Structures are given as structure tokens and as C-alpha cells.
Amino acid sequence: MRTVYVNGQYLPEQEASVSIFDRGFLFADGVYEVTSVLGGKLIDFDGHARRLQRSLGEMEMRAPVERGELLAIHRELVTLNEIEDGLIYLQVTRGAPADRDFVYPDEDVAPTIVLFTQSKPGLADSPAARAGISVITIPDARWGRRDIKTVQLLYPSMGKMAAKKAGADDAWMVEDGQVTEGTSNNAYIVKNGAIITRQLSTEILHGITRAAVLRLAREAQMTVEERGFTPDEAREADEAFVTSASAFVMPVVKIDGVALGEGTPGPVARRLREIYLEEALKIAI
Ligand code: PLP
After folding, report:
1. In angstroms, what is the C-alpha Rg of the chain?
2. How far is the centre of ligand 1, averaged over its atoms, from the C-alpha of 207 (Å)?
């Protein structure tokens, strides 16, 4: 049975609970992070802790614990649940005031903090990474502050379902004619050796994996262009891939039913996955 963390306590999952007045439940008034675990170690914990701090700041929310304690909780959950490979999900909400009210509660209402683990043996060695995934394109109907990692995940969830119904694995979202990102990942294409991905702004999440992958690509003398691209350009690309903390670098081999290149993972995506995993493991804590 899994041990989870709720507001200062480690509890068996079925004994853990959050109030029905919690603003995460009523207003999606919360932020989250997902950190992967490989070989019992946390991948890029610092990046996730920093982004959490930023999300909280942008939402004018109080941090429930400081960085050192957050790291200790992550580590304790890995140990208690004997996680070799998997994920740690963290959520912080604006807490549970006495009643439902659109106005933020007073400062004395404590934020809610919840963490739980998901065991995923062989996370870095997925069959999907060997075969590549397919994506469809859909309109991006999310709110305007996608740089804040909030728990408003209904639209991405609908996008994932639309992909499933269309026989694809995921969806890339399109706004003003250009791809923003995937439902839960950043999106890239490769053309004539250049890696192209949308520039950072409030329109996309600033992926922790994105930052590491682009740094490693530049260090390996690869060309990186941070700019928007259209679905047409993507369908004519040599390769494509997505990045996220749980998928690392995942090759995309089909966009809207059009196979890219040979329809198999391309050399740039394969190489980036290799160097990202190698580097991430080196600095895991
Ligand atoms: N973009 C969106 C919308 C996401 O939800 C995520 C991850 O959940 C990402 C990008 C990738 O971010 P990271 O690499 O930090 O996991």
C-alpha cells in the first residue's frame, strides 16, 4: 500500500484526505510539479523546485514548505514506497477556507500540500520511445497563463481524449496558426538538422526538460531555433519529438496521419534522448 504526504503527515493513501472546501477542488486554484525518479534518484529536483516557487509567486500563493523540507519529503516518499523508477506528483493549493468564495481567503488559511508517488518500472526504457508516438493537431483553447503550472488540466485532458478517439497518442495544440505545445509536453520539429521549438512566453509551460535538452543540444553543437512553427511545417519536417519530465525525449513519428521521414524515430531525437538521460542520471540527487 502506498504512503502519501498530506499537510505534514505521511499516511496510507486511503487515510489521506483533503477538505471539500479546498480551492484546488472548487476553483482549480492550485499548482503542481511532476518530478521523475530513476534508480531511486530525483531527476532535476532543483528545476522543479524553482518552477514551483515561480508558479506560487505568480499566483500570489504562500509556499507551504521551504526547499530543503520539500527535498526531504520527496526523498522520504521514494524510500517509504521503494520507488526505483517512477514519478513524484506534488500539488499545492490555496487551501480550504470555511466557505466557497471567489475572493481569495485571508492569509491565515494554510495552503494544502499533497505529494504521492507513482511507480513506473523501466520508465526510461519505454517501448513508445523505441517506436515513436503519433500526434494530432487541435486548437489551443487553454487560458492565457500557461507558463504557470496550474492544475487546470481539463482542456489538455480533452485533447488527450480527442487524440485517443482519432487513434493517436497525443495532441499538439495550435494557436494563431502555430503549434504552442503538446497536452503535457513541449513540442519540437527537426528540419535540415535544426531543432525548432516555440520560444518561451506566457503561451507555453517553461519545461524543465526543455531547458536541459536545449542546453545539451547547444553544447553538442546542434542548431536550435526558438520560434513558432505551423502544423504544415511540422508535417513536412524530417523529425519531431516532445519533452517532459516523465517522457524525457519522446520521438514523434506521425502528425495528423502523415508519417515523418521513414516513420521511425529520427537520429536527432534518438541522440537527444540518449544524452539527456545520460546527463540527467549524472546529476540526479
Ligand atoms: N508543457 C505542458 C503543457 C506540460 O504539462 C508539461 C509537463 O507536464 C510540459 C510542457 C513539460 O514540462 P517538464 O519538462 O517540466 O515536465
Report:
1. 19
2. 5
- Which residues are catalytically annotated? 149
Answer with the one of 74, 91, 119 that is the final residue of a domain: 119
Distance 87 CA to ligand 1 centre (A): 14
Nearest alpha carbon, ligand 1 atom 3: 184
Which of 148, 186, 208 to probe ligand 1 with, by most ligand atoms within 8 A of CB? 186
User: How many Å lie between the centroid of ligand 1 and the Cα of residue 46?
Assistant: 15
Nearest to 207 by CA among 84, 85, 35, 58: 35
Beta-strand (E) ranges in the chain?
3-6, 9-12, 30-38, 41-42, 86-93, 112-119, 133-139, 170-175, 178-182, 186-191, 194-197, 223-226, 239-244, 248-255, 258-259
**Ligand 1-lining residues (CB < 6 angstroms):** 34, 181, 184-186, 205, 207-210, 243-245
Atom of ligand 1 nearest to the CA of 51: 15
Provide the residue range defining the domain that includes 269.
127-283
pLDDT tens for the chain, 285 residues: list them.
999 999 999 999 999 999 999 999 999 999 999 999 999 999 999 999 999 999 999 999 999 999 999 999 999 999 999 999 999 999 999 999 999 999 999 989 999 999 999 999 999 999 999 999 999 999 999 999 999 999 999 999 999 999 999 999 999 999 999 999 999 999 999 999 999 999 999 999 999 999 999 999 999 999 999 999 999 999 999 999 999 999 999 999 999 999 998 999 999 999 999 999 999 999 899
User: Cα(4) to centroid of ligand 1, in Å?
Assistant: 23
Same-domain status, 197 and 87: no
**Into how many domains does the chain fold?**
2
